[in-house]
Amino acid sequence: MLTLWPKFSLIDKITKINVFRLKPMQKITLGARVVGDGGKVFESHAHFIATKHGQVDVCREPSVGGSYRGVSAMGLLWSMKPSPGQRKGIRLTKSDVTKPYRVVLDCFDGHTDPQEASSLQPLSSNTFEKGYMANGVKRIPVREGRIRGTLFLPPGDGPFSGVVDLFGAAGGLVEFRASLLASHGFATLALAYLGYEDQPLVPSSINLDYFEEAANWLTSHPKVLPHGIGMHAISYGSWIALLMASYQIASIKAIVAISPLVIAFLLPFQLKGRVSDIIPMNESRVLSSEKGSIWRFAQPTDIDYINPRTASKYSAITPVENINCPVMLVSGTDDLNVPTDFTVKFIIDRLKENGKEHLCTNLSYPQAGHLIEPPYSPLCDFSFSKSTKEGYGYPYLAWGGEAVAHARAQEDCWPKILHFLRKHLQQDRKSMKEK
Prior knowledge:
Number of helices: 8
Number of strands: 25
Strand order of the largest sheet: 11-12-14-13-16-17-22-23
Distance between the termini: 56 Å
Radius of gyration: 23 Å
Structural class: alpha/beta
Helix content: 10-25%
Shape: globular
């Protein structure tokens, strides 16, 4: 008998998996399978040995082989990989967040690989669902002026702490993080800015006026606490978030910058009609690997000689020393896309030189890669990239990361991110109650 509880939960919560009525010390295999949006199939399996009472509790018993080893309650999720025969470079991401993933779990006798023995009949089967939207979360498409995105509102009357969620240079409208943040109480705007509707995938510059418009719109929303919002961003999006705080664009009260950037190297940014400088990457240092192109060594890092006090007003280098709000940096040492070791040190040093080191929280994870996502998301160490293929001729990008270390990083940083945002964004709620 294979039992699962709860049958539905958010992606960042644990589903308890138990097997009963086995023989003492019986060897079994648990196989998990999910069909993602677009028909992408991901699978995993783990080997267990039943206790003397004929039971397996995945939260307590170690996997002795298969897709992962050791004790991990959600190991069958984070260790998933694409099933054989599928297109190279696929990634398990949720495009329709209103519908959860349906995970099929099978229990087989003995230690085996379900992929290699597809004719095996399971002893027992069951299903559970993992989603990004809690019951009661509202999804509202946003088309206000130039703004393109989706607003997710938590259940209840509010007002709520507001957050703008930005992804990287892949383009499109990505909603899974914003809907999950809303499920944890934040009014979150998933903001598109590349390759969505009337937005070009490779524009001539990144117009910060657009992000100011979006931030001001969210700040003034009747369901959002006034006086400022947070920004939760990764990679190229983190560069934009840091730029906004550095130039004091809109009222930004807290930033979470995952795998951050600080240099305009692909595109310049534009502010109030003026276009910034750019320090182009050295394409001769883009490395090729069997999984994709490695960009981290091609990006400019030799910029210590530039004095921020004498640089042009719109320098290619983000003037992070001007930031006055709390910043949380999240990075992995095995990031193959961004030189985060340089970037993180640069941000910390510049803040420290200006007496602002107290504003910075640094979470650095050994052997984690670039795409640090919510807990139990499978590692994506490389993927197809439409934007870099179209604009720069690199169809596959290597992201890096060792599966176990990356999974631990995701599980560790997510609650810290939520705590950081609550701490610095809910002060308005306290002041409103005092009034």
